[in-house]
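User: I'm putting together notes for a lab meeting next week and I want to include a structural view of one of the chains we've been expressing. I don't have a solved structure, so I'd like a prediction I can at least talk through. The sequence is below, exactly as it appears in our construct file.
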Amino acid sequence: MSNDSEEQATTGPVIRDKRRIDPETGQVRERPQSAAPAPPHPPEPPAKEPAEAEVEVELAERTADLQRVQAEYLNYKRRVDRDRENTRKTAVASTLAAMLPVLDDIARAREHEELTGGFKAIADSLERTVATLGMTSFGKVGDPFDPRIHEALMHSYSDDVDEPVCQAVLQVGYQIGDRIVRPARVAVAEPPAAAATADEEPAPGQVDESADVPDDEVPGSTSYDDNGSA
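Assistant: Thanks for the context. Below is the predicted structure for the 230-residue chain, given as structure tokens.
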């Protein structure tokens, strides 16, 4: 108790003047500005646990597997669609090829002016149906001869042509798109120059007598040296 009394007597009571107006000057006292609190630091992201890292790796693997399966399915679908379209075209071509004799009969009847009445209406309807399925006819007189789509049944020479042409069409051809169902059977006419060129060329295995051939290269000949020995 004696020590506390002595300390209080030495220091005395502490008086804090919190009046806003100074009694001596009458001025408003400025409050001391307190230091602004420091902004809080952003929290650091928690470290990933090993289990979470394994989940992300497995998710990436499953995503890659899904993308691979999707790509394989798209390729399979394209292949199936292409095969289905080829099968359809083959079936249509086979069916229309079986109708070619009927179309030939209609063409011959039209040439002889026998395509009249109800038969003409049926023939026109059949030809329209065939055209709708994509089959068209080709082969006309005067067309340049093309061995890929023409079949030459007759051959002749003419001064009126400058290249091999179809002089007559014996049977028209038919095609579906780029597929030839039947080639056009025609008679071909060529210029006389083609015949002259063919005559000038030696046949295979024939020796051209106009060419200078040494005696030692002529088949069946025997060459002799200066001493008269063979």
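A couple of points you could mention at the meeting. Confidence is low (pLDDT under 50) at residues 203-207, 217-230. DSSP finds five helices and six strands in the chain.

User: Perfect, that's what I needed.
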